[in-house]
Amino acid sequence: MKKIKKKNILVILGGNSKEREVSLNSGKACFQAIRKLGYKAKLFDPANFFLNEIDSSKVDLIFNALHGEFGEDGVAQSFFEYLRIPYTHSGVISSMNAMDKEVSKKIFLENKILTPNSFAIEKPNFKKKNLINKLVTKHQLTFPIVVKPTNEGSSIGVKICKNLKSLNLETKNLFKKYDNLIFEKFIGGQEVQVAVMNGKGLGAIELIPSRKFYDYKAKYYKSAKTTHVMPANISKKKHKEVLKIAEKAHKALECRGVTRSDFKFFKNKFYLLEINTQPGMTDLSLVPEIARYSGMNFDKLVEEIILDASLNK
Q1: May I ask the CATH class of domain 8-89?
Q2: Crossing angle (nearest 10°) for helices 298-307 and 20-36
Q3: Which residues are marked as active site?
Q4: What distance in Å separates the CA atoms of residue 12 and residue 128, rounded to the nearest whole number?
Q5: Which of 40, 66, 103, 313 could form a disulfide with 91 if both were Cys (CB 3.0 to 4.6 A apart)?
């Protein structure tokens, strides 16, 4: 899409997901950049209005700054398609597949992308006697084991369990809030994340959390004191390798615009945990930091995202 100065851009932010606060921060930062770039822009919060209330005659383009449920799982995207307003980031199916950790891991494996061994359980099946123990054995998982919701972002609901007793307890607690959970082998090593823009890897950053792991607080609160190492402390050869894997995952899920892929680097191998189609755009966010190191400031990053906006994706 060609640059469209003085057109009306609607920044959609907030919403009702558990990631509302992050979305508000991302959206406001992008809104300021959009105004600086010379576009006309307004804010729209789906927590206050329904998406189908958007007046398509007054909007030329939607900048999607939503995070979490309804914002990055294909639901909001389906509304944008229905309204026939070009929008940023990935489309309906790509968003839905990326948000569902069980589906995305299957796509990774089909494309020969290494990901931790895992299995998923739906809430009704949890009542079956010794089911978790049987599946842990069947899928050759050893402790520690990570259990998390299949459709949450920002490490919300992630639990690391050291034995079967704690795994059963955490599973029982999570099923009070969620209908589907995924269980995967905990991978140690370095936490490496890669930003991809329009199919091309921008760079890889390493995160060293002071907390137990890179959880919600480690991601979004300065007080958590997570150390960011840019570029990641890996060899040039491995840096090139992880960018290629992230590009491959971006392509395999048919993503658009910007994505962030989360890896663990352990025993000289990269394990892809997940791909995020609506990465954070706050002052602590990783994609802007990676882009800045590659020579792309925040405003330029936002404009690149805008220029990729489209429909039928």
Answers
A1: alpha beta
A2: 90
A3: 19, 154, 220, 260, 262, 274, 276, 280
A4: 42
A5: 313
